[in-house]
Amino acid sequence: MMNRREALRIMGGGLAAGLGLCALPSCASAAGFMSQARFYDRLAGLKVKCRLCPKECVVGDRERGFCGVRENRGGAYYTLVYGQCAAVNVDPIEKKPLFHFLPGASAFSIATAGCNFDCKDCQNWEISQARPEQIKDAVRLLPKDVAAAARRYGAQVIAYTYTEPVVFYEYMFDCAQAGHALGVRSVMISNGFIRPEPMQKLLPHLDAVKIDLKSLSERFYKSYCVGELGPVLDTIRLVKQSGKWMEIVYLVVPTLNDSEAEIRKMCEWVRGNLGTQVPVHFSRFYPAYQLKKLPPTPYETMERCWKIARATGLSFVYVGNVPGTPHAHTVCPKCGKAVIKRSGYEILERNLRNGSCRFCGTRIPGIWA
Amino acid sequence: MTSRRRFLQIVAGATVAVSGCRQSSNNRSASAAAAAEDKSESQRTLPPPHRVVVCTNPQSVVGGEVNAPTIEAMLAAALGRLSPTGNAEDVLRALFAPDDVVAVKVNCLAGPPLSSHVELVAALARRLTETLRIPPDRILVYDRTAAELQAAGFEEHANDFRSVGSDQVGYDREPTVFGQAGSCYSQIVSQMATAIINVPVLKDHDLAGLSAALKNHFGSIHNPNKMHTDHCCPYVADVNSAPHIREKHRLVVCDALWVCYDGGPGYKPETTRAYGGILTSIDPVATDAVGLDIIEKLRREHGLPSLSSLERAPRYLQVAADRDHALGEADLSAIEVCHVSAEEA
Q1: Pair A256, A225: CB distance under 8 Å
Q2: What is the distance in angstroms between the Cα of A65 and the nearest Cα belonging to chain B?
Q3: What ipTM was estimated for this complex?
Q4: Model pLDDT for residues B262-293, shown as the tens digit of each residue
Q5: B167 touches chain A (CB under 8 A)
């Protein structure tokens, strides 16, 4: 059976060929894609301090940061993945998932190697936990190529996804600008682990953000993600304040973050900080990477999460990675009728008129056109 | 081929007193008992488990250049002193078999000025070939990338060994998890090698505290960048405890010809000095403990505060020696340190 990495490579390679681009030779060195990083401080002794993500790695000469894609060369800090795509696909926007943002749109989806987390359950670990030189069939796409390819493939959106776009910040930033110049929008699919300054500078160039809120437990973030909760919550608040469209995903991992108390706490935090209108997606866990001994999340647990969220007062709650779930539809909070019916990533029925429920006229929050 | 059982016997073997060595005051009676039961010729020539030989010769580095014949002689002396028989060949015969595929982990991260020296590795490879008839194409000198190996000069020695980057061979498709470390190991160690020789460079490391034998295996995994938090602890110990490393590790030959005592792991000319040393041992933890002692002495000589006073002491050494990891001995008082002088080398 073809694994995800192979599929991504094949599709990426196919796209590259279709675009008249060539896959990088397998001997390509990371040095071939070096571009100076935009957020770092120079320190004594040829060290640098990365100022992009809250880890703020202090990196010695010839060493890399935690993300594995930024390297200190003689006291200057470089990104090694600018324009070096580890994955290129055209996906439905629902796959991100973004349910209240241009439903049915195609997203030209790109990723480079690297992540600033080390989630033990990462589904894309083969590229997210890889160093750039370990991606043998990377595709070189400069920002203008990405924007042009998105247009050519009829994609309304460029999605920075699969791995963690924070670690390819400079590339994402330039792609978003290039996309806007051609009328293609940009969405960031992120863990939210970024410092405020770079996020504030990036937000004007984005059209929507999806953030994985992995838990409301600091211990979970430290033990299973090698990250921190606080900065993620700060980013979520920042995106909310910016007015950009945002949806939240919560991956429900059996025994680790699925207790009733934690689900309720998370929902109450969302209600208290973001309001009741932000979509929350509960995503079903499948064993992967270093958490293969856990079973997939039981359907009953997913149902329980949905009920807790609705009982907390959240209006738009979804369940993902569960075939046939009724909780994939967008339901009008006033009349209770489905304004968008979905099956998997497919739109079955649209009952929206100018962003409002066709049945009762209630405005449904989102970016619909 | 050296079996897992045999190797466990090696590392659990008795400490044998050797004239000229600072003898451990904490020898383990169980190990002594095990040795007493061991009657075979090869077992009698196994190195004591926690012996570290420090061989120094000022003539090994002259005018900034290393002296290959001197280094070859030092290696012979350092291996000889490691052996209870005093014979370098006995050590190699005890640790390796003629049909072994020997992976030699060098360290080229800092670039040519502070990489494992080709002269030392070539001398080691020739000894393996001469003593055990292991052909050069079954001696795999490896590091993360072919480019780093090439820059350090390892690609020019095809008569002595094969130089191969993990980027050429690839990493395991699935991670191996031990403790908090989950990594895909280089297929050179996981699939190709039957035995590993660790040839690190002795240097300070700004995050880990020390880069020597244990830390060197961060170059055997696909994601070392994920292992540098909390002073690389317990990650260094965990990475070395995975079966790919633990069951194949045979020998450490630590390159201390040049030692970086501050500002590592990159090359800092102002804090790197010619030490003219080679450390040999079968115990990577003990090697690191002795190496740390050397670095601390160099720091004192140059008026620098100790690593422990800077809270940069490598805590992973104690973890590597604990019951869960059992990779070797971290307590200097329990390590048998043997000094070999220039005259002997």
Answers
A1: no
A2: 6
A3: 0.80
A4: 998 988 899 999 999 999 999 999 999 999 99
A5: yes
